[in-house]
Structures are given as C-alpha cells and as structure tokens.
Design brief:
- The protein is of the alpha+beta class.
- It has one domain: Molybdopterin biosynthesis MoaE subunit (Aldehyde Oxidoreductase, domain 3, Alpha-Beta Complex).
- The protein contains 3 helices and 9 strands; from the N terminus they run E-H-E-E-E-H-E-E-E-H-E-E.
- A hairpin with a 4-residue loop joins strand 8 and strand 9.
Length: 133
C-alpha cells in the first residue's frame, strides 16, 4: 500500500502496475474535477497541502482500510497544485479477494480522505472569483 501526494497528472495504468491488483477484485475510484460548482464555471482548482503530513495521514488511512476490510493491497494518489476540469484529482484503488470488501474498503478510504487529509482546495471560476474549501 502506498499513499502519494503529487503535482503530476495521475496515470491510472502505471499506478495499478505498482501494486498487487491482479487478485480477485480490484475496485477503483477516480475523482474528476467538475466543470461547474454552484452553477459557476470552473477554470481550475488549486490544491494546497503539507505534503509530508498529507502522505503520512494518507498512509494511515490505507493501513486502517487494509486491516478493517481485509484488503490485499491499496493505493491512493491525490494531486496538488493546479488541476483542470476533466482531470483526475484523486485516485484510489484497492484489491481484495471478494468485491464486497473491495467496495467497502474503497468507499472507506475516499470518505476518510475527504474528512482527514490536510489538503485544501481553492476553486477558480471563469467570472474571476475564487473560493477556498
């Protein structure tokens, strides 16, 4: 298992080759930047974080999911910096012997990332306004 914070675009195929994702079930989640938020057109998002702290917490989340759901392997990658609509900002992949554990483990990881990861998002809108989340 590996948690990664990076500025480069996420390459799903390359990441899945890094883990043990050829057994039983592989469940993936891709968070893709929307084109609108609150009826306003997004130009791009900017993600900021303390990379070291974010990776430490991300790895704790992955460890918890492996233990709780009996996962075989897991990986999660979150982008920081500028991310445009249509690009992947978050990828989570888990492998498990059976799909139920995979779906539950993947969902747990995504929700924990949203709640606990020290990453902040700033929306940049076409009308020139900005909004931190």
């Amino acid at each position: 298992m590996k948690g990664i914070i990076q500025t480069d675009p996420i390459d799903r195929s390359a990441l899945l080759k890094r883990g043990n994702f050829e057994i039983g079930s592989t469940v993936t989640f891709e968070g893709i930047v929307r084109r609108t938020e609150s009826s306003k057109e997004i130009i791009h998002l900017f993600y900021d974080s303390d990379q070291k702290l974010a990776e430490e917490e991300l790895n704790r989340i992955l460890d918890e999911a492996v233990e709780k759901f009996g996962l075989i392997d897991s990986i999660a990658v979150h982008r920081v910096g500028m991310v445009k609509p249509g690009e992947i900002s978050l990828l989570v992949a888990v492998s498990s012997s059976h799909r139920k554990e995979g779906f539950e483990g993947c969902s747990y990881i995504v929700e924990a990332i949203k709640q606990r990861l020290p990453i902040w998002k700033k929306d940049h809108f076409k009308d020139g306004t900005e909004s931190w989340h």
